[in-house]
Amino acid sequence: MPRQRPEAADTEHIPAGPAPCRVVVCRDCCCGTPKITGVDHDRQLARLSEEVPVRVSDCLDVCEHANVIVVQPSAAARAAGACPVWLGLVNDPDATEDIAAWVQAGGPGIAPCPDILDLYAFTPPRRTR
């Protein structure tokens, strides 16, 4: 049975209280699928959703880095020059916890990225479309 793609409005999870930034979680052809074994994809999404607004995206075209999570700075941090941070190979629950803690501390442009997350950070290719 083909997988149904939810509408964008159905994929935004916003916890109570203010959040300093947002997270985009790739879930499509590789990320969040049985292709990436040994990961509780539902729990990863639920854990992040407990802490911050999470948007589930279709394929972000960086499948070689599955599971991909993009941490977007808050509006204030973006105005000050902060950029989104792309994290790949986030296949360990401890990494998910590190991301949740960083976002709660302020995320990009507000709180320094924990050294351990530097291991997951990558620069996505430029899109030409």
Radius of gyration over all CA atoms, rounded: 14 Å
The largest sheet has its strands arranged as 1-3-2-4-5-6
Q: Provide mean pLDDT, rounded.
A: 85
Ends apart, CA distance between termini: 31 Å
Could you name the ranges where pLDDT drops below 50 across 5 or more consecutive residues?
A: 1-11, 13-19
Specify the biggest β-sheet: 6 strands, mixed
Number of strands: 6
- Structural class by SSE content: alpha+beta
Number of helices: 4
Helix content: 25-40%
Which outline best applies?
globular
Strand content: 15-25%
General description of the model:
The chain has 129 residues and is of the alpha+beta class. Helix content is 26%, strand content 16%. The protein has four helices and six strands. The protein has helices at residues 41-51, 75-79, 93-105, 115-118, and strands at residues 12-13, 22-26, 54-57, 69-72, 85-87, 121-122. A six-stranded mixed sheet has the order 1-3-2-4-5-6, with helices on one face. Strand 2 (22-26), helix 1 (41-51) and strand 3 form a beta-alpha-beta unit. The longest helix is centred in the C-terminal third of the chain and has 13 residues, at 93-105. The protein is globular, with a radius of gyration of 14 Å.
Short note summarizing the structure:
The protein is α+β, with helices and mostly antiparallel strands and 129 residues long. Helices cover 26% and strands 16% of the residues.
